[in-house]
Amino acid sequence: MEDVPIVHAVERIEAALARVEAAAPALTELRDRHVRFKASVSRSLEQLDQLIENQPD
């Protein structure tokens, strides 16, 4: 029964793959939220830069 450790390793790999596949939709949503948040922060910083730039001396 030398192949038993191999069978267990394959089972662990398949279980890990199932967990990754189950998490994929949440990860995709998280990535999309991050992209939107980053764009929002960038716009806010640009507006702040413009306000500072246009301050009267």
Description:
The chain is mostly helical. The chain has one domain. It is built from 1 helix and no strands.
Shape: rod-shaped
Share of helical residues? over 70%
Number of strands: 0
What structural class should be given to the helix and strand makeup? mainly alpha
What's the main sheet like? none
Uncertain segments: none
Mean pLDDT metric: 91
Query: What's the helix count?
Result: 1
Oligomer: single chain
Domains (count): 1
Strand content: under 5%
Please give the radius of gyration in angstroms.
24 Å
List the helices and strands and how they pair.
Blueprint: H1 4-53
Can you summarize this structure?
The chain has one helix and no strands. It has one helix spanning 4-53.
Descriptors:
single chain; 57 residues; mainly alpha
